[in-house]
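Researcher: Next entry in the queue.
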Amino acid sequence: MRRALAVTAVAGAAWVARRALSRRIGASPLWPLPALETPVSGHSPRRRLRALIVSRTEPAEGVLQLALESPDLPAWTPGAHVDVTLPSGQVRQYSLCGDPADGGRYTIAIRLIADGRGGSREAHARLVEGAQLELRPPRNRFELVPATSYVFVAGGIGITPILPMLRAATAAGADWTLLYGGRSRASMPFLAELAVYGDRVTVLPEDETGRPDLTPLSTAPPGTLVYCCGPDPLMRAVTAAAPDPDLVHLERFAPAAPGPAEPFTVELRRSGRTVEVGADETTLAAVRRELPDTPYSCQQGFCGTCQHRVLAGEVEHRDELLTDGERADSMLLCVSRAKGNRLVLDL
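Model: Structure for this entry, 347 residues:
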C-alpha cells in the first residue's frame, strides 16, 4: 500500500512539473531564458486573425486583388496596412484598399515582383479563393490628417493606400487632386474606380506621357497636404517639388536608404552575453550569432517579428512600423541600430 501511494505521489509530482515546464516554455520567447510577466522580445504584441479569401481578381496586369472576410476583423482607417502571413510563413505588408465602412471585410492588392524576395510570387501562386489567411490587426503610420485641400500622388501599386483616402476626403468635402502614374494603363489598377472622380484624377502612364508632371504641387493653395506612395525616385521628386516638405506625407515600399553606420556593442541582459555589431551588418545578424533562434521575417523593418525591448541606450530607428510609444522602449533588430556605442536588450 505504501509503495502504491509513493508511486502515485511521484507520478503526480512529475505531472505537475511537466505542466509547469510547458507553461514556462510557452511564456518565454527564447527558452531557457527567464520568462517575463509581459513578454515582448520575440512576440508580436498584436493578436493573430484568420480570414477567408472570398474573392480573387486581377484588376491590372501583374496585380492580384483579394477580398478577405471574417467577423473578427477590426475597424481601420485610410492609410492602414496589415501583416499577412503567407503559407510558407513569410510575413508581408499590404495596404488596405477597400472601404473602411465594409465591416468584416478587407481588400488588398499585390503587385507581382518577379525579381523580388519571393513574397509576391508566393501570393500570386498560392493565395486562392476559399483559402484561409492569417493576418495581424491593422497598423497605420500613413494617417490621413484632416485638411481643406490635398494633392495625392501615387505610383503604380502605390494607389492602394491612396484609394480609401480619396473616398474619405470626398466625404469630408475637401478639395483634392490625384496624380496617378505607372508604366502603362494596363499595369495600373483601379482606373475604372477612379474614373468616377472625373478631372480630379490625372492618369499619367509613362509610356504615354513620360515622367509625371508635378506642377500641381507648386500651384496648390497654401497649407495643402501632400500624400505620396510609390517608388523612391517618385517620392524624392515629390518632396523636392512641394513648397513645404513638412506638409508631405510618404508611404514607402521599402525602407529608406540607410545612412552611414558605426559599430556598436549590444548587451543581451537576460542571457548574460555581449555581441559586437559591425558597421556593415545588422543588429539582428549579430544577435543571431549568439542566439540563433531569435525570430525574424521581412528583414526590412515592416513586419515586427524581430521587435525587442530596449533596456538601456539610445536607438536610431530605421523602421516604418513602430509607433512613437513603441519606439520609446523597443526596436526592430533587422534595420535599427544604436545612436551611441552601446545598447542593452531584453534578450
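Model: Confidence is low (pLDDT under 50) at residues 13-45.
Researcher: Noted, moving on.
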